[in-house]
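Milestone 3.1: sequence recovery, worked example.
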């Protein structure tokens, strides 16, 4: 038996894994092993440090529930979600509105609402505003009947399910009209801290980071024949627009609240206009999976089923 050393163990692992029948799994796992080994060599990782890392990941896993996905939070705070989203954008047939984080608070089960419905159950005086815009193809063609799902925090900076797992508030699913127009009544979003009471929060605090996200509203937009768009708008005047703890905000997604906009479909209220451009759907979009996920579906393993590779021919 040959002797394994820090210089030879990487190749030994790659050789053993070379029997993997699924070519994409083989490619991804080989790269993961190479980079993980390179990381350990780079920092001369000690056994004690690696156990600390394993303990940390164990705590991250234990924190996960249908309402709390600590692994998504970890991926987000390490910039990995933003990187995967940026890579995803590069594979679109056309350059539409850029992707931003889905985050851990999206829920498939949201109420379908008529255009112009207020999504907040309680509206504090002076906070109400209209959110509207057009959903089009990259060529500007209006997309009628597109589905526009929105969700955001309440005035306390918490999502509904953070307050109570079964509560539904500050979220809704709208459809565009024949001109691609969607109209939502909502309240001014506020910047908020990501959940800091778990292992990811401990990591962020140990790094002396502020943990804040700039004020934003999330979108998930779909129309047959077009690539699903997961994005968010960000308020330009938020002090954390440039240093979002999860690297989701960017200038191209920044908007202002207009005190009075003559084009606003509901006059008399401040408004945010956010137009959304969807790329036509390519072949790759049918298998690349959603950007982010409903955390309760992750716990049930529903996403893994969708992404499972085809069984190998025997
Ligand atoms: C969010 O915007 O909902 C979010 C994104 C990443 C981490 C935490 C929250
Ligand atoms: Fe959010």
């Amino acid at each position: 038996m040959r002797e394994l050393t820090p210089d030879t163990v990487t190749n030994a692992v790659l050789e053993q894994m070379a029997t993997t029948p699924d070519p994409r799994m083989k490619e991804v796992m080989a790269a993961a092993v190479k980079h993980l080994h390179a990381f350990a060599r780079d920092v001369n990782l000690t056994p004690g440090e690696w156990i600390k890392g394993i303990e940390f990941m164990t705590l991250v896993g234990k924190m996960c529930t249908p309402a709390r996905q600590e692994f998504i939070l970890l991926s987000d705070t390490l910039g990995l979600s933003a990187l995967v989203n940026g890579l995803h954008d590069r594979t679109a047939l056309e350059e539409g509105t850029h992707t931003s984080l889905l985050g851990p608070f999206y829920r498939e089960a949201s109420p379908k609402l008529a255009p112009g419905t207020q999504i907040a159950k309680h509206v504090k005086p002076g906070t109400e505003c209209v959110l509207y815009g057009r959903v089009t193809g990259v060529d500007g063609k209006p997309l009628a009947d597109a589905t526009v799902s929105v969700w955001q925090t309440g005035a306390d900076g918490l999502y509904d399910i953070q307050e109570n797992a079964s509560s539904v508030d500050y979220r809704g699913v709208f459809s565009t009209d024949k001109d691609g127009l969607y109209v939502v009544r909502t309240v001014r979003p506020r910047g908020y801290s990501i959940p800091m009471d778990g292992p990811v929060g401990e990591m962020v605090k140990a790094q002396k980071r502020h943990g804040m996200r700039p004020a934003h509203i999330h979108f998930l937009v779909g129309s047959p024949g077009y690539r699903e768009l997961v994005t968010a708008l960000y308020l330009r005047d938020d002090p954390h627009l440039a240093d979002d703890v999860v690297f989701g905000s960017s200038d191209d997604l920044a908007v202002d609240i207009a005190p009075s906009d003559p084009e606003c479909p509901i006059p008399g209220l401040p408004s945010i206009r956010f137009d959304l451009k969807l790329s036509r759907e390519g072949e790759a979009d049918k298998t690349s999976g959603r950007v982010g996920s409903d955390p309760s579906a992750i716990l049930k393993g529903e996403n893994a089923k969708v992404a499972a590779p085809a069984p190998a021919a025997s």
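The longest helix spans residues 23-43. The two ends are 31 Å apart (CA to CA).
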